[in-house]
Amino acid sequence: MQTTSDDVLIGRIAGGDRLAMQVLFARHHVRVYRFVLRLVRNEAAAEDLISEVFLDVWRQAAKFEGRSAVSTWILSMARFKALSTLRRRTEEELDDETAGTIEDTQDDPETVLVKKDKGAALRQCLEKLSAEHREIVDLVYYHEKSVAEVSSIVGIPEATVKTRMFYARKRLSELLKEQGIDRGWP
Length: 186
Known about the structure:
The protein has 2 domains: about 1-95, Rna Polymerase Sigma Factor, Chain: A (Orthogonal Bundle), CATH 1.10.1740; about 110-180, Winged helix-like DNA-binding domain superfamily/Winged helix DNA-binding domain (Arc Repressor Mutant, subunit A, Orthogonal Bundle). It has helices spanning about 5-15, 20-40, 45-60, 70-90, 95-100, 110-115, 120-130, 130-140, 145-155, 160-180. The protein is mostly helical.
């Protein structure tokens, strides 16, 4: 069952095969969780969303038309749910727990040391990108999605994906130069 394609698993899930659902979940839940976590920036919310996404996979497997890869379909559902959660969250009032999660932007000694690490600098620069650019970079580089797949997931034309990728790379290069990192890794 581990070598079965995602498309076959979806077909079996549509027929009520729980083992196929377990295999599909095991294959994709970490990637989807990380993607959602990058969007909502809250572990508990990300875990709740993952449960909802895979519950929808179970319920809607028969509706899967195969116009994209199964992983693209799952990431599309995850993105939609994450963005819906973010929209609801902005409407909610700021409470003590949320206020406690707001970062202090002052650098402490530990942060100064971390900034010297190029990997940390790259992650920091990625966080400074706009949400649209960060999302495109995340899907292309971390989830290894093609331009067509990103277009399907995000719901924008392929040309827009390419344009956002161009400007994201350009801005990332500028941010890295500000951090003292100029092209490549020694």
